[in-house]
Write a structure and sequence with these properties.
The protein is of the alpha/beta class and 224 residues long. Helices cover 36% and strands 18% of the residues. It has helices at 57-68, 87-95, 104-111, 117-127, 167-181, 185-200, 210-219; strands at 14-19, 22-27, 46-50, 73-77, 99-103, 131-135, 141-145, 150-153. It is globular, with a radius of gyration of 18 Å.
Length: 224
C-alpha cells in the first residue's frame, strides 16, 4: 500500500570509496526515489526523510505535500553530498522540522561556524527544533534539546570497527524507534549507540542475518 515502484528507473545507488579511511560517496542520479509521484497524504506520528529526497523536482514536490499533511513530527537526516544539495533547499527543509540529525562537518558548513555545542544550540534555536542530533564519529554523538538540556553518548572502549558505512543510518533508525516508543532520551541514545557500534563491526551498510537484529529486539523487549 505504501510502497511505490518505478519500472523505468533503478533503486537508489551509491558507490562508496575510501581515501585515508574517510568515505566518499558517488550518488547515482535519476533513480526511483527522485521521481516519487504525489500520493494522498495521511496524518502520521512521524515523517522521516533525508535531505537528498529533495534533490529532484518531482520528489521535492511530493515531499512538500507530505509535510503539509500535518505529521505530528518531522525528522530530517541531513546529507550534504556534492553536487546534490543547495543551501536554500536545505534551509527550507530545516525550517519545517522538529528533529534534525547531521554530523559535525555538516553543522559547521550550514552554520558557518566551528561545530561546538554553542553553535549547535544557536542552530537549534534558529530553526525552532525540538532536538538536534550531532554525530561526532569516534567521539559518539551529542543530542541538544530545546529546553537547554544536552546529552552525550560515546562508543564503548574497545569497539571493533570494520566498516563505518551505515553507522549513521543505524543510529538514526534506533532513534526513530525510541521516539515512537517514547523511550527516555538517555536510554534512547544508549541503545542507538549500542546498535551503531554493532553495525560498524560488520562489513557493509546492512546485515542480512535476522538473528543480528533479533538480539536487539529481544534485549529491548520489542514485539517481533
Amino acid at each position: 500500500r505504501h510502497l511505490q515502484t518505478d519500472p523505468a528507473r533503478p533503486t537508489g545507488q551509491v558507490t562508496v570509496t575510501f581515501e585515508d579511511g574517510e568515505p566518499a560517496y558517488d550518488i547515482v542520479a535519476d533513480c526511483a526515489y527522485d521521481n516519487i509521484d504525489p500520493v494522498p497524504a495521511e496524518p502520521c506520528e512521524l515523517l522521516y526523510h533525508g535531505s537528498l529526497a529533495a534533490r529532484a523536482a518531482t520528489s521535492a514536490a511530493t515531499l512538500k505535500l507530505l509535510r503539509a499533511a500535518g505529521p505530528r513530527r518531522v525528522f530530517i537526516d541531513v546529507n550534504l553530498r556534492p553536487p546534490w544539495w543547495q543551501p536554500a533547499v536545505v534551509q527550507d527543509l530545516l525550517a519545517g522540522a522538529d528533529w534534525v540529525k547531521l554530523n559535525s562537518d555538516e553543522l559547521a558548513i550550514l552554520s558557518g561556524n566551528p561545530a561546538t555545542t554553542e553553535t549547535g544550540r544557536a542552530f537549534l534555536q534558529h530553526y525552532g527544533l525540538r532536538g538536534l542530533l550531532v554525530t561526532q564519529g569516534a567521539r559518539g554523538a551529542q543530542l541538544l534539546l530545546a529546553d537547554g538540556e544536552s546529552l552525550q553518548v560515546a562508543p564503548r572502549p574497545g569497539t571493533e570497527v570494520v566498516d563505518t558505512v551505515g553507522a549513521g543510518d543505524a543510529f538514526t533508525a534506533v532513534m526513530l524507534l525510541g521516539l515512537l516508543q517514547e523511550w527516555p532520551l538517555p536510554l534512547l541514545l544508549a541503545r542507538a549507540q549500542q546498535f551503531a557500534a554493532a553495525v560498524v563491526g560488520r562489513r557493509g551498510a546492512t546485515v542480512d542475518q535476522q538473528d543480528f537484529y533479533r538480539t536487539f529486539t529481544r534485549q529491548w523487549q520489542l514485539a517481533e
